Amino acid sequence: MTNARFLKACRREPVDATPVWFMRQAGRYMAEYRALRERHTLLDICRNPDLATEVTLQPVRRIEVDAAILFSDLLLPLEPMGLPFDFIKGEGPQIETPIESPEDIDKLRIFEPRESLSHVLEAIGLIQRELAGRVPLIGFAGAPFTLASYAIEGGHSNNFARTKSLMYGHPESWHRLCDMFATIIGDYLNAQIDAGVDAVQVFDSWVGTLSPADYREFALPHTKKIFDAIGTRVPTIHFGTGTATTLEDLRDAGGDVIGVDWRSPIDDAWERIGYDHAVQGNLDPTLLLGPVQRMFSQTDDILERVGGRPGHIFNLGHGILPTTPVEHVQMLAQYVHSSSRRR
Ligand code: CP3
Asked: Which domains does the chain possess?
């Protein structure tokens, strides 16, 4: 398994072809996922190890991906902390009682992931048995800023006004909340590694809303605590979007591989991050809607910018959109492999 293309690229070792996987490679763009969702809610799938295993494997069967990603959701740790939530059709996640004040933070608790999220750990064992070494399995969790933003906003936000108000208005409480997230997520990712994942990705999807100085003050120390807790046990990927001005700071927080979104040319980004790190990215997910010629030419551009330097993992700059034709995803994975094949 340590010889898998994806893991080699994480370690910046030469590979026979550029490894590729897609954020949100399991999901609504696939007919077999939609069929399962007619009978089960998203949370049912996340909480049932057999269903989570089935959905994790769906893209591996259909698309030439070089890694599987555990099917779960970023928000699962919120409930055992004392923040129950649900997914509302067409709207996304909704936290029942979002954090409004420092007193609400006092009521939250640190929990034992091996108990409260044991179903996720059980799914990892089942998935690894089913994968039988075909491709590595990526585990994941959210970074403190992104998790705090859901806990405070109650769902998705465009301006993160409540989050920033709490951050600026009650910095001590903010740091206490994020430190609690960091402790929990570090422990949870170590539990995923114990259960058998081959690599982990930390998603800080919305951290791009912070200026570099605010990132360093309010987010970096907490994300760093997570990467420090994992150490060198498995390769780590650190992903965010809107991070064109904070890439160096993201790198300083940790991660062997730094995710780059489509807003930055990948060669510029890599130069700034430094060649002692691997990079992952960075096609605009919208290009997968078509026309395919444009998807291919932009893929060529990314591969040319990378120039065959070891340590590139091909991915999108963010997750696959639900309206994406599955054939385009299949064609793209094949295209990345055939265009980057080294003899
Ligand atoms: O294939 C994979 O990538 C693994 C599965 C996965 C899911 N969520 C399943 C899911 C992963 C890696 C996540 C992470 C996640 N969850 C993130 C970080 C990644 C990112 O996109 O930035 C975030 C912010 C969440 C929180 C979340 N979950 C939101 C905002 C939503 C609603 C938005 C939407 O796309 O509908 C979800 C729901 C969710 N999680 C779906 C899936 C497949 C939607 C599918 C459904 O409703 O059936």
From this structure: 5-340 (3.20.20.210)
| Residue 81, φ and ψ in degrees, nearest 5 | -80, -15
- Asked if residue 76 lies in contact with residue 44, where contact means CB atoms within 8 angstroms, the answer is no
pLDDT tens per residue across span 186-221: 999 999 999 999 999 999 999 999 999 999 999 999
> Cβ < 6 Å from ligand 1: which residues?
23-28, 37, 42, 69, 71, 73-75, 87, 92-93, 140, 156, 203, 205, 319
**Ligand 1 closest atom vs CA 26:** 1
Q: Model pTM?
A: 0.97
Q: What angle do CA 60, 48, 152 make, to 5 degrees?
A: 95
Ligand 1, pocket-test mutation among 44, 55, 73, most atoms within 8 A of CB:
73
Q: Which atom of ligand 1 is nearest to the CA of 23?
A: 3
What is 258-302 written as a DSSP string? EE--TTS-HHHHHHHH-TTSEEEEEE-GGGGGS-HHHHHHHHHHH
Residue pair 257/8 in contact by the 8 Å Cβ criterion: no
Identify whether the C-beta of residue 116 lies closer than 8 Å to the C-beta of residue 80: yes
Which helix (H) or strand (E) is 306 found in, with range? helix 292-306
3-state secondary structure (DSSP) of residue 253: helix
- Count helices and strands (H / E) in the chain: 17, 9
Residue bearing the CA closest to ligand 1, atom 8: 73
